[in-house]
What does this fold into?
Amino acid sequence: MRDAEDAAPTVCGLERSPNLPGVIGNPMGEGEACMPRMVRFHQLGGPEVLKIEEQASKQPGQGEARIRVYAVGLNRAELMFIRGQYLEHPSLPAGLGYEAAGVVEAVGPDVDKNWAGKSVATIPSFSMNQYPMFGEEVIAPVAALGEYPANLSSTEGAAIWMQYLTAYGALIAIADLAKGDFVLIPAASSSVGIAAIEIAKAEGAVSIATTRKSNKKAELLSLGADHVIATEEEDFGARVKEITGGKGARVIFDPVAGPFLEKLAEAAAPGGIIFQYGALSMQPTPFPLFAALVKGLTFRGYVLMEITGHPEKLAVAKRYVYDRLAVPPEDREDVPVLPDGGGLQISRIEHSGRESCDYCCVIHMDP
It folds into this structure.
């Protein structure tokens, strides 16, 4: 296979004009349409239930755009969705995917025509049942489109909005994180955890990242964490007291839940706020009543849609993230990208077959 830089832009295996108007040639015979491929599933399960299927090309309707996909982002949300463990249940047969980056090929009749030809990435603010993003060509609501900084590749563009907006909503929009605040970030090696570390540093807060074992310490420190605690190897409570001078953390941003919540409550500062935005432990979560009473703690469930579901909040959030990811032209390095009008082709899906592996799936999308 040729390098992406040298490859001719293709769709359905055929060369495509660089100006996006259509396909050169027709593999299916006169009058037959080229069928873009989607990743879909017909039963609940792990990566092994995912199938590659052809689907007729669609025209965007009111408030919609059609995107030629260059890259997709895979999050834990999709893995939970195909297992029937996510916030919304799949309507089988179903597609999946929140994040895709590509070029707008067409827009609905009521949509600003200036969107056409722009490089965009989708922002999770919709139902995966209605708008699945894992495909060569997808329909997305225009309200969910975000342009990404020119210094980022399409692959990077497909991996920014979920992680940074999730962290932004809790830490900035709600908690109003400020200089000098201590913020505790469990499961810090996740994409959202790393985003939280970067946001804390940008605001001058002190980040305390946690991970189960010390083998990730060096990497988390290199990513900007001020302190890292290996919870299975260190005395968690004692370390938090040492780092904060006995004050505790004002903001706690937790995707784990389960019994660990009791330790987090003990580590919180009086009047602190604990955001619960996930359930990675998959265990019952006892309420730490006495710590809550004595310290006057706030426990808050939080989901990304609190931000992305409200246009005025989303606009502020997008600007916050965009401005901090953008690099001035004079500081940019060359970033390899696919040729204009190119795209990706879904070729195969691989999975390891190990039930214990959450992320043992690769969706091959070849240039």
In short: The two ends are 9 Å apart (CA to CA). Residues 10-151+326-366 form a domain with the Quinone Oxidoreductase; Chain A, domain 1 fold (CATH 3.90.180.10). The CA atoms of residues 148 and 157 lie 6 Å apart.
